[in-house]
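Release factor glutamine methyltransferase
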Amino acid sequence: MALRSTVQRLRQAGVPSPETDARELVQRATGLSRLELLMGSEQPLKALELWQLEQLTQRREAREPLQHLLGEVEWGDLRLRISTAALIPRPETEVLLVLALAQISAQPSPRVLDVGTGTGALALGIKRARADAEVTASDISGEALELARQNADLNGLTVTFVQADLLSGLSGPYDLLLSNPPYLPDADQALAQPEVQHDPALALYSGPDGLTLARRLVSAAPRVLASGGVMLLELDPRNVEVLAAELSAAGWSAQVHPDWVGRQRFLLARLLPR
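Tokens:
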């Protein structure tokens, strides 16, 4: 009964996935597994469980992201704590991790830099898969870096964290530079879903076409990349081809790769020798 009523409330509030979210909230309030919830869905909740579920449901009705209510997500073989200090890692960014690992698969002890690390997802994903990698993660936000350090401890991984504005103060050389930078046009902010408004704007929006920060990063990248080094970026399907063309004109070899559902999103670039 509690599950059905929670689904109805979330649907009325306009939550995009009311069934999934209601199940997660009931599980969080009761401590039940998914199977236990399904088998005992008609059982009445205890008073404390009802109170906890009501608090969670009210927050989700107000369109606070589910991940913030749960406090953690599973992403790329990692458990990551989530807070308003950093962007919630999106499932499609796991493709960026897969592409990055493929680039260093044959390289012993690769040196990797994750720019704008946020929760630390990409840096920690690299370190989880490649214990021999020397991984550095940077972010301009001290709060985001503290969250990333917590996630490193949570997953038992060692990464070097540096507070920096893009590549300021970093010298490398790095064999792989990867980043999921802010890439949405500023105009998108007025149309953002309520959940997205809980993410820090600093991690989402980047100028008129969404490429202001990415262009700054690309301009500085040759200074820190090793000879033959690779740069991998996640961008918006609306602007990734634009930056790929600019890179090609500036002496890079640039390729665009799709995400899980075929949207062109990831830019792989290597600086050609002059």
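The mean pLDDT is 93.
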